[in-house]
Amino acid sequence: MGKANETGLIRLIDARTVLVIVLCSGIASMFARSMATHLAYLCVMTAFLVLFGKGRQGLACVLVYGLAMGGLWLEVHHGILAFPSPLLLSMIYRMIPTMMSLYLLILIPSGKLTAGLRKLPMPAQMRLILVVMLRFAPTALLEFLEVRNAMRVRGFLGSLRKMLRSPMDTLEYALVPLIFRSLKVSDELSASAVVRGIEYPGHKESYYVSKLRGLDITCSGVALAACIVCCL
Questions:
Q1: Are 93 and 61 in contact (CB under 8 A)?
Q2: How does residue 228 score in pLDDT terms, banded at 50, 70 and 90?
Q3: Closest by alpha carbon to 223, among 132, 68, 101?
Q4: What percent of the chain has pLDDT over 70?
Q5: How far separated are the first and last CA of the chain, in Å rounded?
Q6: Which of 6, 121, 163, 173 qualifies as a FRET site for 20, CA 20 to 30 Å off?
Q7: How do the domains of the chain map onto residue ranges?
């Protein structure tokens, strides 16, 4: 298992399996009957991250979950904290399992994701929209980090106090370049998908083999069972 994780066990799983995990995580996060069942589903998602060699990220999510739950308990029962609000903390701890599943989806290569979506009964235009949506967020985050580093090297972004004291400068030097770069990235992602033949109506072949294996069936079954238990 350790050797498989070093080479990327996430590359051995089918994209449809991760989509099932994302769907089950969203349902469980929204319709969990109690905090105990929601916490149990969080443990399941943490086990998934550990299985795919992302245990550090899983522990970080558990830490954020614990901080949100602790802050919510202090605000509701003791009124110690005034910020953030209980509603915001509730949204944070509710959405963490879904964010963990989306992180697994981001790790899947674009070609493998497209090959898995081709197995689903959906129009080609819908597949194109899903591929661009699922790939835009991590790409936009990378672009934001590059813009921030470039602006900091040029001296446009200073300390946090300076950024808060001059919010309009921060917007001009950081967010405006990010918006224009995001527009360019979205066009490039769409063009890349079209060039690879996503709109071609005939039969397509892929570098990745989209096939359900024993690992896919096991992971999908665990996620579905945990979702049913969490909601019922």
A1: no
A2: very high
A3: 101
A4: 81
A5: 33
A6: 6
A7: 2-109+213-231, 120-196
d(CA 156, CA 108): 35
CA within 13 Å, CB half, 184 = 7
To 10 degrees, what angle do helices 35-51 and 86-107 make? 30
133 is written with which tokens?
């949506």
Tokens of 174: 């950081």
For the record, the structure tokens of 125 come out as 């235009």
Q: Which of 39-43, 48-52, 127-131 has the lowest mean pLDDT?
A: 127-131
CA distance 191 to 174: 26
CA distance linking residue 87 with residue 210, whole number of Å: 41
Distances in whole angstroms, Cα of residue 100 to Cα of each of 31, 39, 44, 218: 17, 13, 11, 18
Tell me which residue of 126, 112, 119 sits closest to 199, measured CA to CA. Answer: 126
Asked whether the beta carbons of 16 and 218 are under 8 A apart, the reply is no
**What token pair was written down for 81?**
């904290």
Instruction: Tell me whether the omega of the peptide bond preceding residue 138 falls within 30 degrees of 0, making it cis.
Output: no
Residues 189 and 170: their CA atoms lie apart, in Å, by: 28
- Rounded to two decimals, the pTM is 0.70
DSSP secondary structure letter of residue 9: G
Closest CA to 105 of 183, 3, 26: 26
